[in-house]
Amino acid sequence: MFKAVWKIWVFSIIVECDLCSPSHLEAPPLVKVFYSPPKKWRNIVRAPAEHLINLQIGLKPSSDQFRANYGQRLSVAEVNKFVKPTVQSTTLVEEWLFHHGISKFDYNPSREWIAVSLTIDIIERLLDAKYYIFRHEEDDETLIRTPAWSLPHYLHDHIEVIQPTNSFWWPKAQDKYGGVPQPAWEVEGRLPTHEELEEEDLVERGHLDIPDINDLPSVLTAEDARNRLAIFPLCLRSFYDAAAAKAAYTFETQIVAQGLDQQTPVTPEQSIHFMGFEGALDAETVLGVSYPTPLVAYNVGGRASAFKPSTYTPTNSNESYLEWLQYLLAQPTLPQVITISYADEEQSIPYSYAKRVCELFAQLRARGVLIIAASGDDGVGEGDNCFSNDGSDKPRWLPAFPASCPFVTSVGGTRFLNSELGEIAGWDKRGGFVSGGGFSNYFPRPKYQERAAHSH
Length: 456
Description:
about 450 residues, 13 helices, zymogen, Rossmann fold
């Protein structure tokens, strides 16, 4: 018995010493992740070597205790303890950085993320990668990204993700809005055809009369919430109260990752690029339906309003979504509810990155925060673009992210026909809106959805 244990102990020491010997620092890089750019992103030119990028390095958590405790309310200290990497992981990663002359970097409170600002030429040597400037074919937005990045083999089990590298996640405002239909078929008491609903959407309905607060019922019923105007009297009452209290001038704004804190009207150039439109709509909606619940707006940097085509260089190449989540998790107190109306196709993000972002949402949920995310504006996929991004061009539903993350609550819309006919999935011909949907291609379906989704 003693002899067998002694042999195992010696083997363990040999393995550890092999990793700790200086020779492992010279190990050749092996590709960790390769990800083809989405179809609408075009490779333009090599990125300038002197361009500065805020690199985020995600270390592997030390255990699965966090997942095992999901569903329990945890403190920030408990969450950080569960996701903290092993000493071996942090030691090996630090040695790797030091070996490449990188000595100044920061950890987040849980030490699962390392943040370091480096020029592209240094990052390319560090990751054996080549960065390019990519341009989106529809709106001329640009990103600095690399299709592939590599690590020495001994780090593959210690580093799960590094960004910005090959994530083309570009969260967009979900801003296709519907109108106020007055269907002729409702008078006839019949189910409308698809063509009739399309015609409905394209008809100009004119001014919408909003009832005075004195005209609202004093005792609200379920029927009051089911009306063709999609306006709930309770929401109107809250809206009037918020307006009277000048709530639009009193909510708090927190700046993250060099976000803008502009307190003046948008300029003509900003208006052309719809800068701030979605955020303003979100704030107006939340204030209107939830007053006097306090509102905090997070202004996050990372996406500039416009770029100069002659330079092909974005003003900010940070991974702002990641920085925002890390900022939130570092706060001792958090809001009870967070709403997100920005999204992009799930397949625009490498799985390794989507997984880590989703786990950050899980950390928020463990601390008691409800995250509500827009399901998207394009149904199960936009137009003729419902194809995979892996080179095979297989037909595929394209759910939105972060709505596809199982730790957020995805909210779409329905279109109410009438009390007898019920409702259908929300859509509007005028704006091209179809309430988002589809099943995640990355995350398993929750068990509670199995029965409803089985027929699909």
